[in-house]
Amino acid sequence: MPLYRVTLAYDGTDFQGWQSQRAGSRTVQGELEAALGRLAGGGRVAVAGAGRTDAGVHAEGQVASFELARPVAGPDLRRALNGLLPEDVRVLFASLAPEGFHARRSAVSKLYRYALDCGGVRLPQRRRFAAFVPYALDPAAVERAAALYLGRHDFASLASSGGSAKTSVRTVSRSLVLFETTGLVYEVAADGFLRKMVRSMVGGLIAAGRGAVSVDELARALEACDRRAWPAPAPACGLTLVRVVYPTMLG
After folding, report:
1. Which domain holds residue 233?
2. Residues 239, 123: one domain?
3. Per-residue pLDDT tens over the stretch 25-66
4. What residues are annotated to the active site?
């Protein structure tokens, strides 16, 4: 059967995350599988996603892979799916995938972006896509905290329960804070992420930036490999899966 890959963008506000769950839970995977089922004439089409984004998390570069019983040209597949999907999910790109491609297992890294507005009054039009704290953060402390994440570490302190990862060791290749007039944008890339890991990273940045913990205390909390030692994760609304990277041979 032909193997396909699609790149998806979605507003995660009204979803219970990516992964299909119990009946009645609206998920991105569920909507995509329903659309593919209609396209396939009523049969179930199993979909694999690159990242199992949580409830309220967005994407502009999620990747999914699946098989179809008959060949379809990429542009035609994109057009057909966008005609069947709800307006808060869109297929940006669709194509045949190389043999052996798997959206999650073939990925070598992912890039996430987190938007955080700081101080003043929260703008209503940003509430779906940016988190908010009602105080200013110390830029120097935030940058020092972000530098702690770079490299290979055991991120057990930042992992929420319920994940299925076999190891909590990850390698972070990018941990960059971009300051804006309204607040900041945090970008992080790694070879993989634990459940709520990025939101916990941002929680650490906020705690250090407001002076609730020192950067040294944050470093010790990271080394403790104990979730109870780490600040609470930041809200889901500010997080977006930006890009998934694959080996060159797999595109």
Report:
1. 109-245
2. yes
3. 899 999 999 999 999 888 889 999 999 999 999 999 999 999
4. 54
